[in-house]
């Protein structure tokens, strides 16, 4: 494949904070001439002005999503499709053979893994059965169960975390803490999502709550590990990115960290799951610096932009791999980091003065 050959790549959910930078990174590929198509559930998506063309589509959990995306891929002559939300990646995983029939390569998990990856507790159970050491965790389905689990975890003396078993992007994640945060912590944004147990349970009706995953609070640093792996799950790249700030949003940047224990854990999990294509693992350290797996994401992290920024263009490499081309070998620039920025362009067409 040469630069003269044009490749059409569709990226979904381009309303995200880093979407403009990712779309520009695709179009600036040094090895391919890429046309980037963007989609989103909102017409005013931030990335629409950075794509060569943009289409508003149903959200990933809408029953019409797959038919609409398939029609769009055929009309736009798409070669490679990158979903960037969990719902879209998992929906596309189930139907990827329909896209393959139209010669569209989708960066998503295998269809047989979609159900497992939809539920965080199911994934934990699966990995525990395979022998992976995991942080303590409990499924919770009622207020009474949550109070019992809180006591098991040492609350109110110790903080713990709850999050929906089905969810993404840090949505619905709460630190349950009886301690009143200091003003310094509030100013640093470290305690915005902390509540005491009774306040959190104040919204529960008739003791029922949607299923949660509860686990003790791990007080160490956070890592996103970019993984690019072939169809058999053999990784070409494992790139840990160390967050400057433990919170996911707003994205405050990260650096590429050659942490041997984080790399070892990511490789161990990948050896068990053998996931293909481009995606990432979330890993957190405890107070002693030991890393633990937090989540397995079925799609790439938007903050892969930091790896791309420093010459490890995993987006471009994934396109090459999905098209059957050789993945380039480049040196990982350990220690490099930052927060991608982008030039402002008009995002929404003006209809008048």
How would you explain this protein's 3D organization?
The structure is a single chain. This protein has 12 helices and 16 strands. The chain is α/β, with parallel strands linked by helices. The chain folds into 3 domains: about 110 residues, Rossmann fold (3-Layer(aba) Sandwich), CATH 3.40.50; about 130 residues, D-amino Acid Aminotransferase, Chain A, domain 1 (2-Layer Sandwich), CATH 3.30.470.20; about 80 residues, Dna Ligase, domain 1. A 6-stranded antiparallel sheet has the order 15-14-11-12-13-16. A 5-stranded parallel sheet has the order 3-2-1-4-5. The protein has a 5-stranded mixed sheet with strand order 6-10-7-8-9. The C terminus is likely disordered.
The main sheet orders its strands as 15-14-11-12-13-16
Shape: globular
What would you report as the Rg, rounded to the nearest angstrom?
A: 21 Å
The count of β-strands is 16
SSE series = EHEEHEHHEHHEHEEHEHEEEEHEEHHE
Strand content: 15-25%
Specify the CATH homologous superfamily of the largest domain: ATP-grasp fold, B domain
- What is the share of helical residues? 25-40%
Q: What is the correct CATH architecture of the largest domain?
A: 2-Layer Sandwich
- Give the helix tally: 12
- Please report the first level of CATH classification, the CATH class of the largest domain: Alpha Beta
Oligomeric state of the chains in view: single chain
Can you tell me the number of structural domains? 3
Low-pLDDT windows of residues: 346-353
């Amino acid at each position: 494949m040469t630069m003269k050959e044009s490749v059409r790549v569709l990226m979904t959910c381009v309303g995200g904070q880093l979407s403009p930078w990712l779309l520009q990174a695709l179009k600036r590929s040094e090895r391919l001439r890429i046309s980037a198509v963007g989609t989103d559930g909102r017409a005013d998506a931030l990335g629409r002005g950075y794509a060569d063309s943009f289409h508003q589509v149903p959200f990933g959990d809408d029953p019409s999503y797959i038919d609409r995306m398939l029609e769009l891929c055929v009309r736009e002559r798409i070669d490679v499709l990158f979903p960037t939300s969990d719902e879209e990646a998992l929906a596309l995983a189930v139907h990827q053979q329909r896209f393959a029939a139209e010669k569209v390569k989708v960066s998503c998990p295998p269809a047989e893994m979609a159900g497992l990856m939809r539920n965080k507790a199911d994934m934990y159970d699966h990995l525990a059965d395979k022998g992976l050491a995991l942080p303590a965790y409990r499924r919770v389905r009622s207020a009474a169960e949550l109070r019992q689990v809180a006591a098991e975890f040492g609350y109110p003396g110790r903080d713990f975390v709850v999050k929906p078993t089905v969810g993404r992007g840090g949505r619905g994640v709460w630190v349950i803490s009886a301690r009143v945060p200091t003003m310094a912590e509030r100013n640093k944004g470290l305690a915005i999502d902390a509540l005491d147990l009774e306040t959190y349970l104040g919204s529960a009706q008739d003791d029922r709550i949607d299923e949660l995953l509860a686990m003790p609070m791990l007080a160490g640093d956070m890592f996103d590990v970019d993984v690019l792996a072939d169809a058999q799950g053999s990784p070409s790249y494992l790139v840990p990115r160390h967050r400057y700030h433990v919170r996911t949003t707003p994205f405050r940047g990260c650096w590429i960290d050659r942490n041997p224990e984080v790399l070892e854990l990511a490789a161990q999990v990948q050896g068990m799951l053998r996931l293909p294509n481009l995606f990432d693992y979330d890993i957190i350290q405890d107070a002693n610096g030991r890393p633990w797996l937090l989540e397995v994401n079925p799609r790439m992290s938007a903050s892969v932009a930091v790896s791309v920024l420093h010459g490890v263009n995993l987006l471009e490499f994934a396109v090459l791999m999905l098209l059957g081309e050789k993945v380039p070998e480049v040196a990982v620039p350990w220690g490099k980091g930052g927060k991608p920025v982008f030039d402002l362009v008009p995002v929404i067409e003006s209809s008048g003065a």
